[in-house]
Amino acid sequence: MIIQYIRSMSGFNRNVKLFLAQVFIMGIYSGIYGIVFNLHVLEMGFRTDFLGLMLSVSLLAASVASVPAGFLCDRFDHKKILVGSTFLSALAVLPLFISSSPLVLLVASALGGMLGSISTVCATPFLTENCERDEAVHVFSASSAMGWAASVVGAALGGLIPLIWPILHLQANRYQLTLLASVVLLFAGCAMLVFMRSSKCNKVHARKSFSLKVRPSPETLKFAAIAVIIGLGSGMVVPYFNVYFTKIVRASIFETGLIFAVANIFMVAGFIAIPYMAGKLGRARSAVITQAASLPFLILMAITTNLMAASAAYVMRMMLMNMAGPATTSLQMEVIRPEERGFAVGLISTGSSLAVAASTYASGLLMAGGNYVLPFTVTCIAYLAAAGLLYYFFGHQEGRESKDTTAAA
Predict the structure, then answer these.
(1) pTM of the full predicted structure?
(2) How far is the first Cα of the chain from the last one, in angstroms, to the nearest whole number?
(3) Contact 18/195 with Cβ under 8 angstroms?
(4) Rounded distance, CA 269 to CA 5, Å?
(5) Domain coordinates in residue numbering, the chain
(6) pLDDT over 50 (residue 121)
């Protein structure tokens, strides 16, 4: 399966290959950033409440910017939007690494979140227009797999590089030096995008849609509703998985990190497997099956305090729930009109982010009061409802398309 998967990747066009190279490079950067940046902020003397404020500002800015980013994506050339937003995003993070002013750090966090959301929203329509219908799931699964695999590499480097600076007799903040060195990866990622070609298809859609008022189609609203429901469920437990393992299961920090690393490896395997599953069952049905299959493992996590059982359940839950992503994204991009794709991705992203933020806060209040079971219960109900709606709205669509194609032939 892996050899066949690699062969499928070799058939991607030039733009997709360059974009995947950028995803891998940025994944390494993200892994380093995720390990080092919080430590850098604390090393400068700030408290965790200010760190939380920075993260919240970035997430809120990204949510607010997602829908306008979708409009930009639908009206202008995707390559130019990607290159411009990625380059500006790289510049925006520099103050985070060199300044110690609270105001500068907050402003830079907001700018980074906004510019990053533009790249994220524009990436999905760009990949869609640069691949054939039958390879779309492969493209999205490859993007997810490479991003996660690279983040594992980056996390390892993030733990290793700070140890090198004292050996080189550099006395500056070792976390700051690591972050400044990682900026090279940001601009290397920008370089990959510069060599991509603009899509004629995107230019045509941009000219047609420039003067039109975009109103959400029924399909966009359906996908947005499903994303909001999943976001409500995810926010209840996902941000607190590390708390779950350390407080409930009584795992050590090392054990928790090892469990998370193993889960990432299994997620990459899931991303590799989903194109073949989607080819057999259809994208909507594959997403529904994998999401529903993750629920028993989530329930097991809610009722067990055994480390081995909880670890196995967590790994399987992460793999099954996340491997549905490429199939769902591919289905979204086929069902939604080309001239509305950017707006749709922005609306879906905003709805999901706001739902995650709200449920994360609510779950924090519940857990602070010692209630760890109710958040898992709410998540199970939300995931089941989302899977049911996805099947109800789109589960039979691919079957009808297959019959129509056969009849036409």
Answers:
(1) 0.77
(2) 30
(3) yes
(4) 11
(5) 13-208, 213-398
(6) yes
